[in-house]
């Protein structure tokens, strides 16, 4: 390459020329690796001389792939442009028609219009659909672009015109289309939920890693499956969006591709008005080990760059702030000439272009040739994940919306604007059909239809598309559960019980290989270190070092075939792994069974958005909240003590939540969960809380209804008759988790006071509330009809004698939810307020859930109904040291 000197007499210019010519020689004869090695050596030498050399984290504001290195485009550009424009129109017609039918129904016009070419090039040439045993590619579509996906599926014949007519109207028609990607609502269409924003990129990375996990463990060959995530530049501000980027680079996940639509705008205005979001993202991704490809300028710019011999335009583009770039697009060609090409030298580069031609210079993301080159490079790259940063214009082609801050809020268009859109994209629609918002579809035997169907078939089928049938197991084995019914006098925690059961399941010959233990760097806290040796920790490179504890009985063991996903300190990442594993029965037709073990306070409270998404995704598996309960976790204090997670579990419709107290309860619940999810294929998942308090594990009470009661949420643990209680006032005591032991102690205290108390274990307040509410609803809508069925709550506690006192290691609102379904006095004790660091007995007295407080509450309830004199309550208050003027824990 010849280098022209600015000043042949300037020794500095001569020196620069010599360096550049030397570099050209190495490039030509040594290749990229030699160039890299040489630059590294020069950097080291400069630093040795005391010169600080700061590596550039970004490349110039140009396309990564030069025009001369672009691969040939494999498709018919004119045909694809015509089809893309028709899809653009159908996406607009769908949203505008919906808003004319129902004012304010919503929808988004601008996102898809900016990203249309990104999707169509990918769907025409890269993204593989499912066929046979091959699941194809997995795609996280940007939620706001959903209308474009529906519009293409319509052309492909996978959706009908009636579907498009009922966009965002899912109740009035069974053909209704959901607002965003929602697998719960469209289980045969959308693969993954991607709204709320930021969850898509996180899920995509952990899905790609789980695909490798399945391959490395020899369970499923996933080598052909690539994970795509289509994202917005504004979305990348979400912490979850960037949370997994380092992990993908660290583990060399070259099976994942991010496509970031950099239209420079978020909902309200510029993403980085005072900066450059593309450069910022490039720096971040490069630093995390990703292959970064920039697609910024269309082929329209290639002749201009070719004339820019001195790199002045490249320098100028690198200086322009995003806020200015946005305005250049909106303000027109004359404004661009004056402000973008703002020097005589730059104006010279575009002197042959009119203002109108300047205004029509496209960004890279609107040029299929450039987009194809970017994708092609991403798929060819090996050894690292790839991100394609594509510059587009938000609302491209929308009159009154293109590059405007209001673009995101556009839901409808006037007839005049629709006609202008029709003209701009040369759509074959008569005026009267434009105003009717008629959908465009070529005839079945037309060249256009033949082309799009051929592209679909050659890639294995259209996407989005989801397998709605979960691959199940034949049965749940008996042996892993057998030991837990007998109980044990040895004091153990429910955490250790659950770990023992998990170990049994891992050892099972049929089911064991499908179990996926997931922990966010707390395995030792939960007593799970024995599993390190039993099944190993998954690592794509195995264990390249000698662990410090290699000579111990339970060393830290990493292996390519390891079974445990040890995620490090990331609850969000762990939850994303749980979702990938818990949907493998759909995605890959292998029924993987995830057990995600976490510190209960840092579970649902921290990743509630992902838990909601897991429910919608029809994820199956077990969430295990360890160290649960406000008073069971001694010493850790306010930030760690969980008194609310079961309340947070209430809104998730298909999450079954349990707070077991004893070993046999845990065994019954997990066995039932395995049967429901992985044998019967029910779209539910389970949340169990377990603790670290050691106590004797009693045997399962006798009776055929005990196991049924455990699953339904309530059973009689010990009646007053079992203690030979004398006839006296009756009361019903309810507890769960470790606090059930305090309730049992209260029963014994009340026995001394001549009160006959029954003790009930409430394994699931949510299940009790749900069933009672459903039956109440049925009765309300069938007025005057006597209901034959009564709730489990009414059959059990409702028929027992006396008032009810329920004590919980969670806030009172949890047991309160069943009180309104009982026709008797109902009192609750709970752990409302901030936690404290202290012993368990001190904590239980502070939060007023100790055995003495439960017994006192029972006496108070009996006195309230006239079954006991108030003097008995006062005597007990003094005897049990109940402080009447103690501050309320909620306010202290």
First-last Cα distance: 76 Å
Q: What global shape is seen?
A: elongated
Mean pLDDT equals 95
Q: Which percent range describes the beta-strand content?
A: 5-15%
Residue runs with pLDDT of under 50 for 5 or more positions: none
Q: What strand line-up does the widest sheet have?
A: 10-7-11-12-14-13
Taking the sheet with the most strands, its summary is: 6 strands, parallel
Q: What level of helicity do the residues show?
A: 40-55%
> Helix segment count?
35
Structural class: alpha/beta
Strands, total number: 20
Radius of gyration: 33 Å
Summary tags:
single chain, alpha/beta, 35 helices, 20 strands
Overview of this protein structure:
With 892 residues, the chain is α/β, with parallel strands linked by helices. 40% of the residues lie in helices and 10% in strands. It is built from 35 helices and 20 strands. The strands form five sheets. Strands 10-7-11-12-14-13 form a six-stranded parallel β-sheet, with helices on both faces. A five-stranded parallel β-sheet has the order 1-2-3-5-4, sandwiched between helices. Helix 3 packs antiparallel against helix 4 (110-125), helix 3 (77-101) packs across helix 5 (146-155) and helix 29 (739-752) crosses helix 34 (851-864). The protein is elongated and about 110 Å long. The termini are far apart. The mean pLDDT is 95.
């Amino acid at each position: 390459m010849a280098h022209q000197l600015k000043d042949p007499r300037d020794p500095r210019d001569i020196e620069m020329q010599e360096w550049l010519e030397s570099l050209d020689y190495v490039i030509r004869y040594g290749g990229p690796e030699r160039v890299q090695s040489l630059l590294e050596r020069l950097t080291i030498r400069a630093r040795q001389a005391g010169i600080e050399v700061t590596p550039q984290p970004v490349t110039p504001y140009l396309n990564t792939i030069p025009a001369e290195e672009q691969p040939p485009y494999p498709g018919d550009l004119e045909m694809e442009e015509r089809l893309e424009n028709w899809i653009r129109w159908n996406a607009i017609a769908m949203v505008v028609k919906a808003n004319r039918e129902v004012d304010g129904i919503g929808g988004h016009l601008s996102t898809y219009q900016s990203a249309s070419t990104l999707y169509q090039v990918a769907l025409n040439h890269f993204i593989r659909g499912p066929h046979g045993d091959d699941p194809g590619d997995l795609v996280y579509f940007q939620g706001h672009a959903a209308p474009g996906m529906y519009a293409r599926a319509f052309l492909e014949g996978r959706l009908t015109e009636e579907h498009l007519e009922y966009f965002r109207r899912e109740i009035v028609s069974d053909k209704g289309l959901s607002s965003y990607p929602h697998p719960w609502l469209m289980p045969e269409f959308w693969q993954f939920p991607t709204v709320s924003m930021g969850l898509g990129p996180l899920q995509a990375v952990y899905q790609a890693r789980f695909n490798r996990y399945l391959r490395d463990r020899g369970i499923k060959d996933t080598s052909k499956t690539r994970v795509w995530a289509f994202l917005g530049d504004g979305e990348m501000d979400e912490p979850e969006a960037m949370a997994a980027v380092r992990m993908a680079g660290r583990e060399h996940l070259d099976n994942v591709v991010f496509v970031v639509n950099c239209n420079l705008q978020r909902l309200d205005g510029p993403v980085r008005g005072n900066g450059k979001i593309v450069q910022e993202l490039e720096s971040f991704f490069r630093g995390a080990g990703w292959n970064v490809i920039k697609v910024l300028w269309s082929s329209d710019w290639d002749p201009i760059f070719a004339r820019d011999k001195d790199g002045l335009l490249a320098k100028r583009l690198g200086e322009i702030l995003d806020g200015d770039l946005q305005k250049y697009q909106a303000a027109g060609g004359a404004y661009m000439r004056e402000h973008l090409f703002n020097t005589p030298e730059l104006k010279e580069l575009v002197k042959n272009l009119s203002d109108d031609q300047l205004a029509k210079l496209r960004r890279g993301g609107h040029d299929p040739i450039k987009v194809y080159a970017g994708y092609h490079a991403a798929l060819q790259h090996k050894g690292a994940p790839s991100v394609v940063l594509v510059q587009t214009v938000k609302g491209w082609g929308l009159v009154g919306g293109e590059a405007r801050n209001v673009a995101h809020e556009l839901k409808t268009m006037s007839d005049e604007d629709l006609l202008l859109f029709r003209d701009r994209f040369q759509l074959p629609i008569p005026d009267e059909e434009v105003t009717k918002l008629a959908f465009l579809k070529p005839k079945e035997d037309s060249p256009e239809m033949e082309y799009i169907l051929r592209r679909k078939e050659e890639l294995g089928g259209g996407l989005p598309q989801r397998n709605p049938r979960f691959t199940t197991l034949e049965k749940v084995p008996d042996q892993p559960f057998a030991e837990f019914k007998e109980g044990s006098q040895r004091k153990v925690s429910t955490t250790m019980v659950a770990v023992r059961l998990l170990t049994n399941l891992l050892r099972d010959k049929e089911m064991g290989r499908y179990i996926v233990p997931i922990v966010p760097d707390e395995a030792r806290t939960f007593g799970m270190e024995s599993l390190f040796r039993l099944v190993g920790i998954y690592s794509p490179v195995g264990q390249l070092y000698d662990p410090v504890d290699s000579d111990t009985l339970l060393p830290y063991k990493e292996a390519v075939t390891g079974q445990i996903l040890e995620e490090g300190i990331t609850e969000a990442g762990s939850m994303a792994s749980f979702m990938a594993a818990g949907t493998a029965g759909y995605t890959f037709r292998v029924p993987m069974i995830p057990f995600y073990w976490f510190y209960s306070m840092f579970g649902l409270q921290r990743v509630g958005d992902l838990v909601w998404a897991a429910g919608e995704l029809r994820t199956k598996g077990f969430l295990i909240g360890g160290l649960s309960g406000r008073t069971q976790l001694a010493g850790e204090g306010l930030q760690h003590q969980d008194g609310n997670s079961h309340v947070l579990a209430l809104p998730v419709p298909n999450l079954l939540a349990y707070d077991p107290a004893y070993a046999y309860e845990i065994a019954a619940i997990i066995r039932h969960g395995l049967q429901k999810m992985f044998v019967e294929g029910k779209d539910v998942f389970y949340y169990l809380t377990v603790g670290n308090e050691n106590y004797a594990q009693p045997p399962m009470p006798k009776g055929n209804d005990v196991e049924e009661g455990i699953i339904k949420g309530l059973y009689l643990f010990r009646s007053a008759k079992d203690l030979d209680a004398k006839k006296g006032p009756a009361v019903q005591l309810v507890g769960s988790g470790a606090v059930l032991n305090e309730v049992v102690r209260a029963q014994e205290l009340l026995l001394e006071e001549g009160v006959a108390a029954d003790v009930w274990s409430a394994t699931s307040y949510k299940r009790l509330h749900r069933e009672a509410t459903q039956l109440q609803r049925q009765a309300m809508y069938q007025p005057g009809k006597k209901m034959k069925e009564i709730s489990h709550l009414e059959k059990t506690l409702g028929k027992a004698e006396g008032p009810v006192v329920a004590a919980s290691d969670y806030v009172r609102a949890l047991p309160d939810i069943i009180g309104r379904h009982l026709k008797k006095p109902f009192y609750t004790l709970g752990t409302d307020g901030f936690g404290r660091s202290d012993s368990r007995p001190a904590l239980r007295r502070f939060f007023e859930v100790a055995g003495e407080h439960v017994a006192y509450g029972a006496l108070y309830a009996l006195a309230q109904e006239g079954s006991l004199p108030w003097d008995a309550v006062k005597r007990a208050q003094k005897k049990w040291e109940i402080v009447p003027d103690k501050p309320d824990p909620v306010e202290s």
